[in-house]
């Protein structure tokens, strides 16, 4: 994750053991202790803290503008690319704060991959789409085997194995999204972030992605942003509900509560959560 000589280097390097989380419970791969996120003078999110356990799917839900995607993109420092972005707090990955000055944001994204809302394959062949990150990271192993492995992990191999040299842009929307997932998992990230990965897909493609998530969590811890409450119920082990604070004249998102998905939907602790999951507002 870092440029330290003690850190593993290159895709496929053995990962160090996941340390106990800050609450003393082993298995927390991420600890988010967000005090505030700013875009310029605008405070986008405040006071949001949660743990993400290894080998689980965590869903971020809540109304538009509540900061779900901002928090998600802060985890692997994608927001560093946004002008005026400022993060206050800590995000610990395996016990190390990814916002420490010595940490290379590019290295963070090697271990914490991302799949975006819109399928965004590169204008190159299916094979080269998947191999792109491997080459970028200087992978020295068998490239053909790793590309096949990634495509199998994304449940796409059987559909594209005879047309690997064709453009990834020629695939259907659902296939393109699975290609992007293959590209993301090819470098074997420990955590996979998914920002509304099914919002641009039809119901059949959505089912395939949801089924794929259950397979992927055997190797990757997943955090997903979704507006689809039924999707959160279907795929997530843990759900975190974000809401919008308008009491000071602005719109600042914050975490209301987080817990096991079944409990959060059936017996939420907070009134805002209860209203949202009941469909009282969107």
From TrEMBL:
GTP-binding listed as a keyword: no
Residue ranges of every copy of the ABC transporter domain listed in the record: 29-277
Disordered: annotated span: 1-25
GO cellular component: membrane
Keyword field: ATP-binding, Nucleotide-binding, Phosphate transport, Transport
InterPro entries, A to Z: AAA+_ATPase, ABC_transporter-like_ATP-bd, ABC_transporter-like_CS, P-loop_NTPase, PstB-like
Signal sequence region: none
Keyword Zinc-finger: no
Biological source species: Frigoriglobus tundricola
Record protein name field: Phosphate ABC transporter, ATP-binding protein PstB
Organism lineage string: Bacteria, Pseudomonadati, Planctomycetota, Planctomycetia, Gemmatales
SMART domains according to UniProt: AAA
Biased composition (Pro residues): 11-22
GO BP term, pick one: phosphate ion transmembrane transport
Entry's Gene Ontology molecular function annotations: ATP binding; ATP hydrolysis activity; phosphate transmembrane transporter activity
Pfam families: ABC_tran (PF00005)
């Amino acid at each position: 994750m870092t440029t330290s000589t003690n850190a593993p280097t290159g895709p496929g390097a053995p990962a160090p053991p996941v340390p106990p989380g800050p609450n003393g419970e082993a298995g927390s791969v991420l600890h988010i202790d967000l005090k505030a996120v700013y875009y310029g003078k605008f405070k986008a999110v405040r006071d949001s803290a949660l743990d993400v356990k290894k080998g689980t799917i965590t869903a971020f839900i809540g109304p538009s503008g509540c900061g779900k995607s901002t928090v998600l993109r802060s985890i692997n420092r994608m927001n560093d690319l946004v002008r005026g972005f400022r993060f206050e707090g800590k995000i610990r990955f395996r016990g190390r704060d990814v916002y420490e000055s010595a940490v290379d944001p590019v290295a963070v994204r090697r271990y914490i991959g991302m799949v975006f809302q819109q399928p965004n394959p590169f204008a190159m062949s299916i094979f080269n789409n998947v191999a792109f990150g491997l080459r970028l990271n200087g992978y020295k192993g068998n490239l053909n085997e790793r590309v096949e492995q990634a495509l199998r992990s994304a449940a796409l191999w059987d559909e594209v194995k005879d047309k690997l040299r064709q453009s990834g842009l020629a695939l259907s929307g659902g296939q393109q999204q699975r290609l992007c997932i293959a590209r993301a998992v090819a470098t074997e990230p420990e955590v996979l972030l998914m920002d509304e990965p099914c919002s641009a897909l039809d119901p059949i493609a959505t089912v395939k992605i949801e089924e794929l998530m259950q397979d992927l969590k055997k190797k990757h811890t997943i955090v997903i942003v979704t507006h689809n409450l039924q999707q959160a119920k279907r795929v997530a082990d843990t759900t975190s509900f974000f809401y919008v604070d308008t009491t000071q004249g602005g719109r600042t998102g914050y975490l209301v509560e987080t817990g096991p998905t079944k409990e959060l939907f059936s017996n939420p602790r907070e009134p805002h959560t209860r209203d949202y999951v009941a469909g009282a507002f969107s």
